[in-house]
Amino acid sequence: MAAQDSCLSLIKYLLFVFNLFFFVLGSLIFCFGIWILVDKTSFVSFVGLSFMPLQIWSKALAVSGVLTMGLALLGCVGALKELRCLLGLYFGMLLLLFVTQITLGILISTQKTLLERKVKDFVLETIQNYHSDPERSAAEESWDYVQFQLRCCGWHSPQDWSRAPSLSNNASEFRLPCSCNNWSATNDSAIPDMASLSQFSRGGPLARPRHSADLCASDPKTRLTYGEGCARSLQKWLHNNLISIVGICLGVGLLELSFMTLSIFLCRNLDHVYDRLARYR
User: PROSITE patterns this protein is in (predicted)?
Assistant: First the structure.
């Protein structure tokens, strides 16, 4: 009996400590989301990224932080106070999350062609309506971030941006989002004409633009513009990072399974503890 009590105590405090860690982590994630909502400028300066989908990140971080905090709080209180109802609810939410992730993985693997077509249509629609629909600003920021990080331009090629009426102010000039510009190839003798002087930082003309909304007058045939489309760049990125992605997914899944096992084991064995306490009364 003493060994069983020691085992239950170990599981209880182990579950408490792990969930306390995730509660603190969820609090930090939530604070980052609120920080972006309150003061975007200081956050951009802190992370050092010029192109970033702040509108989407702020909401995603805030919601993820609240969910993580709520789930971790259930685990902490349920384990520490030995409350079967909270432990059962904690197990049920983890099980729902695990089944949802498995379902999404199956859908992505079986509906790969349909998903690629949906993504392609969404990206091309975003390019065509660039700077023409204020409600699509979040999608535009996200696509600028993808182009900037993957060093690509357009979906198939930079010519995709010729579909955007808002980027063509006359027949002789072809403008692109500054996220398409290859800033590593820029030098003093070949500086692209910028549509807005506000995008230059005090560091000089070699600095990256601060806002994804800035446009650059550029020629897609020159080396100052990324010549590869993002469809191919995305395929390369997924191929190069496939092992890391699978490893992270497996790690998260095993972590969830471990928490579910500990919580249901503790929940089921609390009956024996309560029965022994009742006999001593």
Answer: TM4_1
Q: Where are the beta strands (DSSP E) in 99-229?
A: 175-177, 193-194, 215-217
Other Cβ atoms closer than 10 A to 59: 14
CA–CA dist 19, 74 (Å, integer): 9
Q: Answer for the pair 8, 263: CB distance below 8 angstroms, yes or no.
A: no
Number of structural domains in the chain: 1
Q: Which amino acid is at 125?
A: E
Assigned domain for 194 exists:
no
| 21 touches 73 (CB < 8 A) | no
Is residue 177 in a domain?
Answer: no
Instruction: Give buried/exposed letters for 210-248 (b at 16+ CB in 10 A, else e).
Output: bebbbbbebebeeebbbbbbbbebbeebeeeeeeeeeee
Q: What are phi and psi of 242, to 5 degrees?
A: -60, -45
- Interacting residues of 148 by C-beta distance below 8 A, sequence separation 6+: 50, 51, 179, 212
pLDDT digits (tens, 9 = 90+) for 71-114: 999 999 998 888 888 999 999 999 999 999 999 889 888 888 88
